[in-house]
Amino acid sequence: LLRFVIAGAGPTGVELSGALAELRSNVLQADYPDMDTSEIEIHLIEGADRVLPPFSPQSSEKAQKFLEDMGVTIHLETFVGNYENNTVTTKGDLVLDTATFIWSAGVTGASIDGFEETSLLPKLNRYKVDRYNRVAGFQNIYAIGDIALMETEDFPKGYPQLAQPAIQQGKNLAKNFKKMLRKEELEPFKYFDKGSMATIGRNKAVVDMGKIHFGGFLASTGPTVISIMIKQPDLSCGRLNRTRSSQKKINKKGTVFTVPFLLAPPKRFDTPRLVSKLKIRFQPMSCGPAFVGR
Q1: 264: Cβ contacts below 8 Å, ≥ 6 apart
Q2: Burial class (CB within 10 angstroms; exposed 0-12, middle 13-18, buried 19+) of 25
Q3: Could you read off the pLDDT of 113-129 as tens digits, one per residue?
Q4: Is 37 left (phi over 0), alpha (psi -120 to 50) or beta?
Q5: Distance of alpha carbon 216 from its chain centroid, rounded?
């Protein structure tokens, strides 16, 4: 019962392993002092030769070090064969008894009967599409997202099965449908990579943004700052997103917000505390915040 096995060391598996490790180290030790938390085992199984295969090698290396430092046991180049009677068997010698087995090794597309064999890649259950998301061998059938495999020079194995490629393909295809009605030239799909992030634990995260790769404290707090700046106030030239928790005072000069800025998460999750607060004043005719004090 105290052994957790997670199959798949993608972002989901890595983040889940880190969350369980944080739970073991921080929460359980404090709430159940008589419990021997060293008996809790966390095993992460991955078929590739590194964790976070979609990420850069630098981020994968940092993420693996974070997990190992947190006490997660990682099994690379290991494939799950079966799970039956509370036992995980692999295609190698590894056998793990566990009542908690979590599958996070990704998804496969739900194929439809009637398509040509050249259109469907059986192993991946994904349809091969061109730059306009047309299924190979057809002129009026389209596929987007996880089920579509679009090979490009930058992504020879297709785009990652994430939300952003699906969203962007859907928007591009909708535009092309309108162009078809107007008999205009179609626009090929171009993927805009907004970056990827995986949060392993407290002050432990990795971020890939194009050719920029970083991890640790900066990676874990950077997106939080961006989220505060974007979600709390609407920065579009004086338009304010006023909420009861963030609005402090309104005057003719502008609006002063008190925004909680968490520099380091607390050790105890059940007793959150604010490390510092930043006061931000928005000028009515400006497009950005002005820090007026601390």
Answers
A1: 202, 203, 217, 275
A2: middle
A3: 777 777 888 777 889 99
A4: alpha
A5: 16
Q: How far is it, in rounded angstroms, from Cα 180 to Cα 211?
A: 36
d(CA 284, CA 292): 15
pLDDT confidence of residue 94: 94
Do 213 and 59 form a contact (C-beta atoms < 8 A)?
Answer: yes
Q: How far apart are CA 204 and CA 17, in angstroms?
A: 12
SS3 291: strand
From residue 107, give the alpha-carbon distance in Å to each of 74, 87, 88, 172, 287.
Answer: 21, 22, 19, 23, 42
First to last CA, the chain: 48
Residues classed as catalytic: 15
Q: pLDDT for 80-114, tens place per residue?
A: 999 999 999 999 899 999 999 999 987 777 777 77
By C-alpha distance, which of 106, 109, 142 is closest to 123?
109
Q: Burial, 102: exposed, middle or buried (Cβ in 10 Å; 0-12, 13-18, 19+)?
A: middle
How do 148-149 and 196-201 pair as beta strands?
Answer: unpaired
Whether this model's pTM surpasses 0.70: no
pLDDT for res 203: 86
CB burial of residue 189 (10 Å; 0-12, 13-18, 19+): buried
Position 284 confidence tier, pLDDT thresholds 50, 70, 90: very low
If we measure between CA atoms, which residue out of 221, 227, 282 comes closest to residue 252? Answer: 282
